[in-house]
Protein backbone atom coordinates (compact mmCIF):
# COMPACT_ATOMS: atom_id res chain seq x y z
CA UNK A 1 0.00 0.00 0.00
CA UNK A 2 1.06 3.57 -0.57
CA UNK A 3 1.21 6.41 1.91
CA UNK A 4 -2.13 8.12 2.45
CA UNK A 5 -2.26 11.77 3.37
CA UNK A 6 -5.34 13.74 4.27
CA UNK A 7 -6.16 17.34 4.94
CA UNK A 8 -6.42 16.62 8.66
CA UNK A 9 -2.66 16.14 8.82
CA UNK A 10 -2.46 12.37 9.02
CA UNK A 11 0.08 10.51 6.95
CA UNK A 12 -0.34 6.75 6.95
CA UNK A 13 2.48 4.39 6.18
CA UNK A 14 1.81 0.98 4.62
CA UNK A 15 1.29 -0.88 7.91
CA UNK A 16 -0.95 1.85 9.32
CA UNK A 17 -3.04 1.81 6.14
CA UNK A 18 -3.34 -2.00 6.30
CA UNK A 19 -4.43 -1.82 9.94
CA UNK A 20 -7.02 0.87 9.20
CA UNK A 21 -8.40 -1.22 6.31
CA UNK A 22 -8.74 -4.24 8.61
CA UNK A 23 -10.39 -2.21 11.38
CA UNK A 24 -12.92 -0.81 8.89
CA UNK A 25 -13.66 -4.32 7.65
CA UNK A 26 -14.01 -5.88 11.10
CA UNK A 27 -15.53 -3.07 13.19
CA UNK A 28 -14.56 -3.20 16.85
CA UNK A 29 -11.38 -5.25 17.32
CA UNK A 30 -8.66 -6.20 19.74
CA UNK A 31 -4.99 -6.02 18.80
CA UNK A 32 -4.91 -9.81 18.46
CA UNK A 33 -7.67 -9.73 15.82
CA UNK A 34 -5.56 -7.45 13.65
CA UNK A 35 -2.34 -9.31 14.43
CA UNK A 36 -3.86 -12.62 13.31
CA UNK A 37 -5.18 -11.06 10.09
CA UNK A 38 -1.79 -9.52 9.28
CA UNK A 39 0.02 -12.81 9.96
CA UNK A 40 -1.72 -14.30 6.92
CA UNK A 41 0.41 -12.07 4.67
CA UNK A 42 3.60 -11.39 6.64
CA UNK A 43 5.63 -12.08 9.74
CA UNK A 44 4.90 -9.36 12.26
CA UNK A 45 5.26 -9.14 16.03
CA UNK A 46 2.20 -8.67 18.22
CA UNK A 47 3.97 -5.78 19.96
CA UNK A 48 4.50 -4.02 16.61
CA UNK A 49 0.78 -4.19 15.87
CA UNK A 50 -0.04 -3.01 19.40
CA UNK A 51 2.35 -0.05 19.09
CA UNK A 52 1.00 1.00 15.69
CA UNK A 53 -2.61 0.75 16.89
CA UNK A 54 -1.76 2.85 19.95
CA UNK A 55 -0.18 5.47 17.69
CA UNK A 56 -3.23 5.47 15.40
CA UNK A 57 -5.35 6.10 18.51
CA UNK A 58 -3.01 8.93 19.56
CA UNK A 59 -3.42 10.45 16.07
CA UNK A 60 -7.19 10.32 16.54
CA UNK A 61 -7.77 7.77 13.77
CA UNK A 62 -8.77 4.96 16.13
CA UNK A 63 -10.76 5.15 19.34
CA UNK A 64 -10.22 2.65 22.11
CA UNK A 65 -11.95 1.57 25.25
CA UNK A 66 -10.90 -0.77 28.02
CA UNK A 67 -12.44 -4.24 27.88
CA UNK A 68 -11.16 -6.38 30.73
CA UNK A 69 -7.38 -6.41 30.42
CA UNK A 70 -7.38 -5.45 26.74
CA UNK A 71 -8.49 -2.53 24.62
CA UNK A 72 -11.18 -2.61 21.96
CA UNK A 73 -10.40 -0.38 18.98
CA UNK A 74 -12.69 1.17 16.34
CA UNK A 75 -12.12 3.55 13.47
CA UNK A 76 -12.76 7.14 14.54
CA UNK A 77 -13.75 8.11 10.99
CA UNK A 78 -15.78 6.23 8.41
CA UNK A 79 -13.62 4.86 5.59
CA UNK A 80 -15.47 7.07 3.09
CA UNK A 81 -14.75 10.26 5.04
CA UNK A 82 -11.06 9.49 5.33
CA UNK A 83 -10.87 8.41 1.68
CA UNK A 84 -12.59 11.60 0.52
CA UNK A 85 -10.25 13.78 2.54
CA UNK A 86 -7.22 11.80 1.35
CA UNK A 87 -8.23 11.88 -2.31
CA UNK A 88 -9.01 15.60 -2.24
CA UNK A 89 -5.61 16.29 -0.70
CA UNK A 90 -3.87 13.98 -3.21
CA UNK A 91 -5.67 15.68 -6.10
CA UNK A 92 -4.69 19.10 -4.75
CA UNK A 93 -1.03 18.16 -4.31
CA UNK A 94 -0.49 16.41 -7.61
CA UNK A 95 -3.07 17.91 -9.96
CA UNK A 96 -3.77 21.38 -8.57
CA UNK A 97 -7.13 20.19 -7.24
CA UNK A 98 -8.39 19.34 -10.73
CA UNK A 99 -10.48 16.18 -10.76
CA UNK A 100 -10.28 15.15 -14.43
CA UNK A 101 -6.47 14.76 -14.54
CA UNK A 102 -6.59 12.85 -11.25
CA UNK A 103 -9.31 10.49 -12.52
CA UNK A 104 -7.47 10.05 -15.83
CA UNK A 105 -4.32 9.15 -13.94
CA UNK A 106 -6.13 6.62 -11.77
CA UNK A 107 -7.90 5.05 -14.73
CA UNK A 108 -4.65 4.76 -16.65
CA UNK A 109 -2.77 3.11 -13.78
CA UNK A 110 -4.96 -0.01 -13.52
CA UNK A 111 -6.60 -2.37 -15.97
CA UNK A 112 -10.38 -2.20 -15.50
CA UNK A 113 -12.70 -5.17 -15.76
CA UNK A 114 -15.72 -4.93 -18.09
CA UNK A 115 -17.91 -4.65 -14.98
CA UNK A 116 -15.89 -1.71 -13.71
CA UNK A 117 -16.11 0.01 -17.11
CA UNK A 118 -19.90 -0.47 -17.04
CA UNK A 119 -20.03 1.00 -13.53
CA UNK A 120 -18.02 4.02 -14.70
CA UNK A 121 -20.48 4.52 -17.56
CA UNK A 122 -23.38 4.45 -15.08
CA UNK A 123 -21.56 6.99 -12.92
CA UNK A 124 -20.99 9.33 -15.88
CA UNK A 125 -24.67 9.02 -16.84
CA UNK A 126 -25.69 9.96 -13.29
CA UNK A 127 -23.33 12.93 -13.33
CA UNK A 128 -24.74 14.08 -16.67
CA UNK A 129 -28.21 14.01 -15.11
CA UNK A 130 -27.00 16.18 -12.23
CA UNK A 131 -26.87 13.39 -9.64
CA UNK A 132 -23.43 13.45 -8.07
CA UNK A 133 -24.28 10.50 -5.83
CA UNK A 134 -22.95 12.38 -2.83
CA UNK A 135 -19.39 12.34 -4.20
CA UNK A 136 -18.77 16.07 -4.19
Q: Characterize the overall form.
A: elongated
Measure the end-to-end span.
Answer: 25 Å
- Describe the strand arrangement of the main beta sheet, using strand numbers: 1-2
Give the integer mean of the pLDDT values: 88
In total, how many beta strands? 4
CATH class of the largest domain: Mainly Alpha
Radius of gyration: 18 Å
User: How many domains make up the coordinates?
Assistant: 2
CATH domain topology of the largest domain? Arc Repressor Mutant, subunit A
Largest sheet: 2 strands, antiparallel
What can you tell me about this protein's structure?
With 136 residues, the protein is mainly alpha-helical. The chain has two domains: 72 residues, Orthogonal Bundle (Arc Repressor Mutant, subunit A), CATH 1.10.10; 50 residues, no CATH class. Helix content is 57%, strand content 12%. It has six helices and four strands, in the order ββαααββααα. The radius of gyration is 18 Å and the shape is elongated. The N terminus is likely disordered.
Please specify the SSE layout and strand pairing.
Blueprint: E1 4-5, E2 11-12, H1 14-26, H2 31-39, H3 46-58, E3 62-67, E4 70-75, H4 79-95, H5 99-109, H6 114-128
Antiparallel strand pairs: 1-2, 3-4
Helix pairs in contact: 2-3
Feature tags:
single chain; 136 residues; mainly alpha; Arc Repressor Mutant, subunit A; 2 domains; two-stranded antiparallel ribbon; 12% strand
